[in-house]
Design brief:
40% strand; Chorismate lyase; alpha+beta; homodimer
Chain lengths: 162, 162
């Protein structure tokens, strides 16, 4: 399946340079609920270090959430955030969890840049099993360092007939 | 007319914290053309100075463009940008015109923050005459100063049945 064949709501989520939470709220006309699946501080392995531009062994907040609206899950989002680059108050909000990233950045009035590095259609994924998904990866830059690496996965099915 | 009664594409444009050009390209599945209506450098009057947080008399780039896709006009956007806060290379691109703001910011890898200050439905507007429009105003912050004030106006009619 090519990206241009996806339903419009999914193409919007795939390509936006803004907040996916906002898009989902506008598309579904319902509030989005962020449900944390897990959240831990880990030491960066070499793969994480490469993704984040840090040294191995540095502390990284690893979080996974699902985004739900009206009881339906629209996305699974996992993120890696190096703690050393993060303003302390942002760190607190991120660890309190259940707050969408876009809202955290806005609340703290951070000036950032989003850089989408990969958009692809996959046949399987950890969260949605053998259902095809749209997967995208992007990084949020703050003061020229990577504040966060994010992978969002959207199931491709009839739930997008909004 | 209330905001929640608007067609979904218009609600998306009204509320996005990302680029409207990108949204229009995804919604119409066509490239967006930016057509400059006028572009001048002027001295700030007191109204401009208030909007931009600068002194009267300072230089401001005043630009108006329409955003078209597939021959149809989807938005009229006017902007005010104080020149003193602007990196010189960004200024060049802005004056060369016909480049969407979102693309200019991305090309120069600027870290910014968007702050939507007003969203309203109006019965008339300068560009679309007596057609009802959705109008929104927002400011783009860069290094804690206002880089740009933008007013986007979208006609409310059947062109959004996409």
């Amino acid at each position: 399946m090519e990206l241009e064949d996806l339903p419009t709501p999914l193409r919007l989520c795939a390509g936006t340079d803004g907040s996916v939470t906002f898009l989902l709220e506008a598309l579904t006309r319902k509030p989005v609920e962020v449900v944390t699946q897990h959240q831990d501080v880990v030491k960066a392995d070499s793969k994480m270090a490469g993704l984040l531009g840090i040294e191995t062994g540095q502390e990284v907040n690893q979080r996974a959430v699902i985004l739900k609206a009206g009881g339906i899950t629209y996305a699974y989002a996992s993120s890696l955030a190096p703690l050393q680059h993060m303003p302390p108050k942002v760190r607190e909000d991120l660890m309190r969890a259940d707050i969408p990233i876009g809202k955290i950045l806005r609340n703290h009035r951070l000036e950032t840049r989003r850089d989408v590095s990969k958009i692809e259609v996959l046949g399987t994924s950890d969260y949605f099993g053998s259902k095809p998904v749209l997967s995208r990866e992007y990084r949020i830059f703050f003061k020229d360092k990577i504040l966060m690496w994010i992978n969002e996965v959207f199931p491709i099915d009839e739930r997008w007939n909004l």
